[in-house]
Design brief:
Length: 110
C-alpha cells in the first residue's frame, strides 16, 4: 500500500510518509481486506480532529502538513475513501465508505 501511495502522491522520504507508515503497518490487514471487496480506492487524506475542527490535508500537501505539525497537540487520522464499483447504480448508503485509521500510540478520536 505504501508503494501505491508513494506513486500516487509522491511521498518518498517526506514527513507525511513517515507519519502514515506506522498507521499503514498497524492496519495492513484491514486495508488488505478492503482491497478484496467491490470497492475501489478513490482518495486518501489526513484529517486533524483534535484541535482545529476537522482540518483535511491531501497527502501531497507537505507544506500544509508541516504547518500543523509544528503546533502541539496535533494528531491526524488517515482516511481511505472507497467507492462501490457500481456507484452509478448504487447511490444509497454504503456506496461510499470512509475507512478511518489511527496509530495505537496516538491518543486520537478512535
Amino acid at each position: 500500500m505504501i508503494t501505491l501511495l508513494q506513486n500516487k502522491f509522491g511521498l518518498k522520504n517526506q514527513k507525511i510518509q513517515k507519519y502514515i507508515t506506522p498507521i499503514l503497518e498497524e492496519h495492513k490487514e484491514a486495508i488488505s481486506s478492503f482491497e478484496k471487496t467491490s470497492y475501489r480506492l478513490v482518495d486518501v487524506y489526513l484529517k486533524e480532529t483534535l484541535r482545529f475542527g476537522y482540518v483535511v490535508i491531501p497527502l501531497n500537501n507537505e507544506e500544509e502538513f508541516e504547518k500543523y505539525m509544528q503546533k502541539s497537540g496535533i494528531e491526524f487520522v488517515l482516511i481511505f475513501e472507497y467507492q462501490h464499483k457500481d456507484f452509478e447504480k448504487f447511490e444509497g448508503p454504503g456506496s461510499i465508505v470512509l475507512l478511518t485509521l489511527s496509530h495505537n500510540s496516538f491518543s486520537g478520536i478512535l
